[in-house]
Request: fold
Amino acid sequence: MKNSLPHIIQYCHVKNSSIYVDGKSIYHFDTDNFEVFADNAYKNLDLKYPKFHKMDNLSKLGFLCAEMLLNNLNISNYEPQQIAINIVNKNSSIDTDIRYNNLIAKGTSSPAIFVYSLPNIMIGEICIKHHIQGDNLLFVSDHYDTKLQYNYMSSLFENKNCEVSIGGWIDYIENNYEAFLFLVEKKNNTTDLPFTIDNINQLYKTISK
Reply:
């Protein structure tokens, strides 16, 4: 695949109590509460991953989006070290940080909550579930900087042993949430969308705010 070019194979959104794959709604639960939505999605999509219930909301959001993105794709054809993941978000893990700080203020603590007080734990949960051992990184930015992400992912394809990569935006704060993930693969197939900044932006905007 040395002469192959990166193409966007599939993408997924989670927002507004709905999950969309390639722009089509595959699941909706009518609620304004993310935790209720996430728990119902887990049950109705038959995910069967008990550790899900221990995750914080940011990790649950990322997990759901990754599961639906990869649901009908077989990345296990690649070596774990050939698969990378890069996420951007705005609020880091501040939602869980506040929750943990409130416990401290009450004179108590919770290791189960503390472990999620870093945003890259969300990426870690996705990597564990899907056996991803390649480059993984989370950028914190006040907006979805697709140029930054594109440049970073492109450098992995050009300079490292990377054949497939997950990119996107996953942000959660006080019940406000949005997840967008896409999968890029090096391949010779002109029917798939070329990996470009414009195409990332176009797919991200597929689901209106």
Remarks:
- DSSP finds seven helices and eight strands in the chain.
- The two ends are 38 Å apart (CA to CA).
- The CA atoms of residues 49 and 83 lie 21 Å apart.
- The longest strand covers residues 176-187.
